[in-house]
User: Fold these one by one.
Assistant:
Number 1:
Amino acid sequence: MSDSLKPLVLVIDDEPQIRRLLAVALEANGYRVLPAATGQEGVVLAAQHRPALVVLDLGLADLPGQEVLRRLREWSSVPVVILSVQDDEAGKVAALDAGADDYVTKPFNTGELLARLRVALRHATPREESAVFQSGALVVDLAARRVTVADREVRLTATEFALLSLFIRHAGKVLTHRQILREVWGPNAEGQTHYLRVYVAHLREKLESEPSRPRLLLTEPGVGYRLIEEE
Amino acid sequence: MSETNRPNPDALLRSIQREEAARRRGRLKVFLGMCAGVGKTFAMLEAARRELAAGRDMVIGYVETHGRKETDALTEGLPAIPRRTLEYRGVQLTEFDLDATLARRPQLVLVDEFAHTNAPGSRHPKRCQDVLELLDAGIDVFTTLNVQHLESRAEAVRQISGITIHETVPDTALDGAELELVDLPPDELRARLSAGKVYLPDRAATAQGNFFRPGNLSALRELALRFVAEHVGQDVRDYRLTHGIADPWKSGQRLLVAVSPSPTSASLVRWACRLAGELKAPWVAAYVEPPRPLDTEEQKRLAEHLALARQLGAEIITTSDRDVVAGLLRVAREQNVTQLVVGKPAGWRALDLWRGGSFLNRLIQASGDIDVHAVRAEGVVAPPRGVRPPAFESWDWRGLLLALGSVAGVTGVGLLLKPLTGYPAIALVYLLAVVVLGLFVRRGAVFIASLLSALLWNFLFVPPLFTFRISSAPDWMSFLALLVVGLVVGQLTARLRAQQLAERSREQRATALYLLTRQFAQSADLVQLLGIIVRQVGEAFRADIALALPEESSDAPLTPYFASTWALPEKELSVAVWAFQHRQPAGRSTDTLASAQGLHLPLVAGERAAGVLSLRFHDVTPLPPAQRDLLDAFIRQIALVLDRQRLRDAETQAKLLAESERLGKTLLNSVSHELRTPLAAISSAVSGLREAGPLTPAQQNLAGELDEAAARLDRLVRNLLDLSRLEAGHLRANLDWHDLRDVVRSATDYLGRALSQHPVKLNLPPDLPPVKLDFALTEQILANLLGNAARHTPPGTDIEVRARLDPNQLIIEVADHGPGLPHGDPMRLFDRFQRGPGATAGGTGLGLSLVKGFTETQGGTMTAANRAEGGAVFTVRLPLVALPPLPEEKE
């Protein structure tokens, strides 16, 4: 692959060590990296270089990460993956609800980071929606509303199916509680996390081979859920 | 549903409030009889036995059986609270023991004779106040009462039987009470009486013949029946109002009764109370202070009447006006009064003519849309009043001396002048002296001076000298003129002075209040404020002042303020505490603990009392109503200003706290960032290394060691940071619905390789619903318990995580198969830096204290124990919130 064809990733982080680490990991895996040490610089570089992806640290010294995200979103729909520390669930949720595409928690696993970037890039490019979704043993025919697990048909209620098709539309990406509740139950249900817990438990019961150790429908603690795509 | 049938929302609200208050308060049941001997105590004891049989915690507080066998038999075997014995003037008295009952806290207590007057030195002068305190404390009470002891019926009973009732209870004491009428036909009562079955105190025995006449008994019986019917009628009205049943009752009435020092005013107040009760209307008792000052007797009576009205549930308003009619109507309009109750004047008064009609006529003419009730005065007949009440307010010896002196002086001057002017002119000198005197002395002295002047002039100057005979007509005219002018002038100047005095005292009151508020506005802090209060109130009311305020650092409810001018003795302080806790005045000239030296007034602003102001007056006489009014105004001002000061202090405190919290958080965040970023870099670099290409087994091992070390350090840093957050009190539980399985999985993922030697067995009910908890805190609890178990148990043994719900808690247990807990108190494990013996390296002793802190932050509890089958078990109990319903599934 020639250099100019490689996707350009803008890394906005005020820690030089993390910037270097990200540069090494990303460049070894087919990306070009554009580092920015401050939020201000990041916004300017994003405007100048039109990166394909932005990796944004929430804990910047000069601007709050959410503010950088807001300024980017004023004119650009570039996919943004948030980099954040473990205890800041509220910050992650706020950033995701404000238009970030996904997040990675420090210390990050390189494989996980690359997977997140891939999904974010894929969702950013418009493509034909496939009518059939497959992940591991799960096959969902969205048009026919047919769900099978290991070729065995599974019956879902209307709400369960609505929930599952939402996950499929955003496969691989994290969805926050608020986003899911709003989509499936309407804007008035935004605070009703318990709906979600009950219905996700139902879905796991019906779709997972081992419901207490889910491999398809993962919980992102304090943030939301993610449907895993298995090849 | 038609508009008119909808329940009145205000009435509904009031009824809910009353029902709520009733739920917190105890319930009162009154066994009401027409007179002694109908069997009230007997009926009460029977009812109490039924309650006891139904399993209620019932005790006898005070029951008077008068030694009757049937009644005595009923008390046998019932639990009782010993009576309090106290000695008064050498006599042993036994009384109901209020404090012992409050301490015992039964569900139901029997207290006989509701209208009983307590022995001097008791907390309350009347037993009905003891009962109210019991009800306030949530204890149900059964009591007995004769209809003649009802405040509003006492007058009627006196008219029926001719006996004045001294022990009365206010009708408001029966508000919300359940009444049970104990009825006995008069003939049967008389039969019981002649059989000696009715106990009568000795002094009443003489009245027995009169009191128990068949006619009397019938009238009393009717009175009792009617009272119960009216009481029930009110309950029915309440029910109708709240349930929207149409009722002819015209709502929104408000009554005003005009109170005066006249002796008939008391029965007027009772009449108004009855009317207000029947109309279910709020009522106001108003006193319009005329310019003329009252004498002590009148002041005393007025204070009694106002106290009676207050006791019967009226709101008290005093105002002053030159014209009583105008004053009354002004108050009535201000208070939105719809009905006005005044006394019907006894006779016709000449003076009314030139005043523009009688008091009543003028009131009716000016009353507009207010209905006026003129009620015939009952009871004591007013003393006949002249044009003015008897003139001598009190003997003014200084004024009398001045009057005698000036008459003597004028006589001397007259004797000197007589040769020059002749005797008729001397009359003018006398006249001048009397007029001038009127400016300085009271009416009585002026009167004496004018009489003396006339006589002396006649005796010493008018021929024939040294006789009281007057021979010529002009001399007669001069003599009479001197006499009459003197009297009239004296009267007029005296009235002028009285008006002046009244105005001056009103002005003084206004000024005092103004000064107080102005000084409040200027004072900067609480200490200065308290100093002003002590000084100003002390000066205005001629009293020693003590301020007692609640102090946060102290266990006592009130702490006396150090700069008080009266050091509260312990007994007085306890009275102040009572006033504070009950938010009612107590001590001298009140209904509560009236034997106290001082008057203790709670400083009530809004819902709470800010403290108590205690006054020890220098004078012995009670405060006149006007002064008492002023004192109340002072108290309101002080309460407001103290409350404002408290809010201001709280605000400053909150600001400081928020600032320190913000600083603490900033520091923690930066430390956390500095420590964890390098750790994150190490972990990420290792994962990058693995991603970069296949590693040799040796490299694989080294990478694993790096990972493990970084993870351990990260856990340590996280624990230390959590601990400092916990210490600083910054930790808040963020409760939301979670699947407990997610929490457990997250905890085991977090521990990673640290659990590699210990399989974790999960034992959760398959139908475990979502539970409300803080995800991060609970994850840390489990991670620490699991990590702890892994460190203290031999490799290869498994760790079990169990959870179950009981009706109101979520119970999570972490059980292991290790050596178990060391001997001694297992709770000591939760102390900081406690490490179990034989622990392998790698624990800081922080884990369990964090677990306990995190559990308590979520409102839960934490215990540790050894299992019967070996190993330790740690149990976390978190409060359980019921799962709200889910929306209907739309198929």
Number 2:
Amino acid sequence: MLLAKYFIAFKNVLQSEIEFRANTLIRFFISLITLVSIFYLWNDVFSARAEIAGYTKEQIITYYILITFILASVITFSPVADNIRNGELSMYITRPISYIWYQYWLALAQRFMRVLIGLPILIIIFIIFREHVYIVTNPLSYLILLVTVFSAMNLLFFIDILINFLEFWFTNSWGMNMVFDYISSIFSGALIPLAFLPSWLITIGNFLPYQYTGAFLIDAFIGRISFDQTLLGILIQFVWMIILYIMSRIVWHLGLKRYEAYGS
Amino acid sequence: MALNIRLKKEFSLAIIHLKLNTMVRMEDKITFLFMNVGIIIRIILVVIFFQAIYTKVNVIGGWSYAEVLVLVGTWELINAIAWATFFRGGFRRMPGFMRRGELDSLLVRPVNLKTYFIYDNNDILFGSLPIIFAVILIMYGASISSMDINLPYYLFIILFALIIQYFFVIILSSINFWTIVEQTMHLFINTMRLGRYPITIYKGIARTALTVLVPVACIYSFPVQALFGKLKITDLGIMFGVLICFYLLSNYIWNIGLRRYESTGY
């Protein structure tokens, strides 16, 4: 019963995403344009070598296809900063709902639909690149991918909402968003697999949650890390989720004390 | 004489817009600070990316590390100029104009719309620092290279690259006359990302397509090849051909699109 009101919001977003599925599809296609350059770049890099930093050419191409797909699915626009900036937040805080959980269900619905809409495109890409990709045959790996992608969605939601809450202190936080996006792109492994990075950057990355939103998912899926390491990684994802949830609650309460409901 | 008057009018309008846009931007100092921190981080990340690859290989598509640094700098420089001028202007906002029927209010103004969009939302203040960072990277890349450099030739080719990119943006934005593509900006950025790597990594039809259809080779790789004296005369000829074709095509598509345009919205 407690979840019923959030489930209505979830259903509304699902319907809206279905209605604008063409828009989502176009967005996916556009995001995947960069895969062309990634494919040619790594083809060239691997032209004289069979393996670099523990990756074969097939593994690295699979890595980029999956990470591009996952990030295109799970990175969604968050209205939180806008709500704070233009005073719309007042509308939500007077309702008998938790604003954080309300936003969580909206984001979950958006991400869920994007994964579903994008899945046929992913399959087509794998068919096109079939001679250059690493095909995972172990069914357990697919189950691991589902679990880790779901956890990554949750992690990204809490990271995202925390950054958006900065709007309580700064009038326009998109500059900060941009900085966090770049930091995320390196430590999540979206830019380059973490194994290629210098050791000092890997050390910094180990203290941050970002690798559990990207590189870890793919490395676990393609079997670059052992089953025990995968289980430990899932546990770390869970711990980060709790830490980020607590942080977002604290920042939310601190932010509300500063909130002055600007706008009309 | 008429051209002279028109140029003076456009120039004075550009100055007025520059003053207004700069005043608006000055109100947003925190964003300015973080945006520039973000741009420095982005450039450092791309350098880390290539550095990581160059620890494993000596060349990428026959290009040395120094050449790739100049390529990254050139990519940042051209995009920063495009962002500060024509791309940040009306072209980026075309989907919104079409959806809300706002193009009418712009069409009735006594200006050439394609020229007006170069400066209407210019952002010299926010655009200047990325340009400085890009120039520093280009200078660093050139300094660690053992090759001779030809700066005037590079600047000349950069100018033509910018003009080609401008025509490309017009063509891309004109799609909105037929079907509104909300992600025009996203499409432009991702297409241009194809040019962040040396054109020589692409083979066969992909290289041809990226030279003449989506001319990222002309926009990013050719200027770098010109700087190091590696631009072949045939490539220069192709570049001029692309420039003329894109000029004609952008004019044609834009004019056909304008004729199709029916004011919608409220």
